[in-house]
Write a structure and sequence with these properties.
alpha/beta; five-stranded mixed sheet; 5 helices
């Protein structure tokens, strides 16, 4: 199995945890340059009563604590949905090397859809971005979540 698909499946499993907990179902995974899992988490915004508790932010925080450093320049972040401006900015600030995501986000996406924080010539770091990995599965989970709440 392709490494990106394998890691995205772990992120999707995290997104299902968020779904079960009543959170917007987004999951994230961070791996090292060899593809070894460092950490995984899911949205916990409602649970923690914290608007910054996005899945991507949580894995970046956990990895930074684990390694006692903020620069994660040898890492790849997998997210089921294109990161928002806050998360994309954190990826740039942490110097993450690669971003791989499933579904694009036309309302909040900051890796090429609405904004392009991850490849902005005015910033001092750019990420390699791969979009659309297991996109249908990621999108279907989001649609299911929001259709049940409307």
């Amino acid at each position: 199995m392709n490494v990106d698909k394998k890691n995205m499946r772990i992120a999707i499993a995290e997104a299902w945890k968020a779904y079960i907990e009543g959170e917007v179902p987004i999951g994230a995974v961070l791996t090292d340059e060899s593809g070894i899992l460092i950490c995984a988490d899911h949205n916990r915004i409602e649970q923690l009563n914290d608007a910054t508790a996005h899945a991507e932010m949580l894995v970046l925080r956990e990895a930074s604590k684990k390694f006692s450093r903020r620069r994660l320049s040898d890492c790849t972040l997998y997210s089921t949905v294109e990161p928002c401006p806050m998360c994309a900015g954190a990826l740039v600030l942490c110097r993450v090397k690669n971003l791989v995501y499933g579904a694009s986000d036309s309302k909040f996406g900051a890796a090429g859809s609405l904004f392009n924080v991850t490849d902005n010539k005015f910033l001092n770091h750019r990420l390699n971005v791969t979009a659309g990995i297991l996109e249908d599965e990621c999108l279907e989970l989001m649609k299911k979540f929001f259709s049940e709440r409307r």
